[in-house]
Structures are given as C-alpha cells and as structure tokens.
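Protein modeling request. Please complete all fields; requests missing the sequence field cannot be processed.
Requester role: graduate student
Desired output: 3D structure, token encoding
Chains: 1
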Amino acid sequence: MKVCDLGQLDTPLLLFGGPYSNLHASRALLDFAKKGGFGPEHVICTGDLVAYCADPVETATLWQDFGGPILAGNCEKQLAENAMDCGCGFEAGTTCDLLSAGWFAHADRLVRTKMRAWLGALPDLMVFQHHGQRFAVVHGGLTDISRFLWPVSPEAAFLQEFDAIADQIGRVDGVIAGHCGIAFEKMLSNGQRWINTGAIGMPPNDGTPQTAFAVMTAGQVAFHRLDYDAASASKAMEAVGLTQGYHRALLNGHWPSEDVLPPDMRR
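Delivered output (267 residues):
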C-alpha cells in the first residue's frame, strides 16, 4: 500500500473526485481553482480520473500537469494492471456492469503504457492535518477500493473503514472519499465524519447537468455545484461512439441505471 503524507494544510482546500474522462468539466473546475487562488498542493482528487466520458488521456494529462495530489481510484488501478474491466464493484449482470464494458474498452484503447505507469504509481491512501484535525483520503474505502458507501449506509460500515485506516496510519478525525458519485457529509456518533466529494464528471442523479465538488475551510465543508459545457461533453461522447446512456445523463442529470443505488435513493 502506497501512503502519501501531505503534511499540514491549513489554507482552504478544494476537494473533488470522479473527473471520469470529462475534459470539459475538468477544465471548468481547474478554472475555478485558479480563479479562487487554490495552488496545486491544495487541490486534492479522490480518484477515477478515467471513466464514462470521451477524453481519458486528455483529462488525465490535464490533472497530471496541474500537479495536485491525486489518489488512485479503481479505474486507475485497473488500467495500470491491464485488467479487462473497470473494477467498479458493480454486481455482475446489472445494467451498470453491462454499460461499463463500453466506456472501459474506450479508455483501454487510448491510454498508453507511459500513462498507465503514472496511474499505477498514484497513492492508495493520503493523510493530512487541517486546523487541528487529521484527515485520510481514500477512494471507495480502505477495505475495498470499490466499496460503495452512501448517505444512507449504516454507521457500522463507516466505522469499519475508520478502523481499517487506523490500523494503517493511526486514528483520523475525518475521511475524504469518492467513488459513489454522490456528495455528502455524514457525522458519526463518535465525532468522526465521512466526507464524500462527489464527482465532477457526472451529475449526482438529481435531474440537473451540474456536477459537484467540495471546499474545506477551517475544518468546515461546503459543497458546490459545477457549471460547465455539458452539451459539448455529451457531443464528444457521441463522436467516439459512447452512446450507451451516459451521454444523455450529462444533459438530463439522470444515470442510465440506478441499480447501483440503494433502493431508497432511487427515483
């Protein structure tokens, strides 16, 4: 396991995940970061640079060149290992599982050896201090990189992840995570908190094309919505044949399948 200690970070932090090969959304967030005065060391990515959308190489290169801390998501791991699928944790035979074959094959065709080596060298776990609190950064979870933890998941599931993190790096006050694509903060009964940054590359299944990210200031988290040229991102997907439904999700804000979601989070 590769652990990266980011040290003391007391200035405001921009926290995001899931660029998902969406170059248009990535450019919009990078513009927000630069206008807001966020230096690369204060822009932290929870992983999944590459996924559903049209531009895996360009998106990964943009964030590589920017130089901020990036965690390895399951998509990075799978590409680095020349695996046959995305490793997203979808149940076999579900719609999400079947649709993933198309976009992963697209990324697999385009991402070359040098980029795969860089993806494979990304850390599995990051840690930093922020205004007297200690935070870990994971993708889905530490017990399973592709673990789906939702706002409605039982507290025991979050506590299991905190215990696993403590075994690796000691106790933390909070966790910054990604993977599930839904931005939320969950306060646990013991005072620890789980913060999911959401994803900038795909809407959070709420009927709007805006995506999500977070800003942490003096220990407090505010979630933001990202406006970007979703129409052009959708057209880029159509141009490369990615028309399994996620191209429409960029515009209508609804995932082509909700079977990955807990029942009480579906429409």
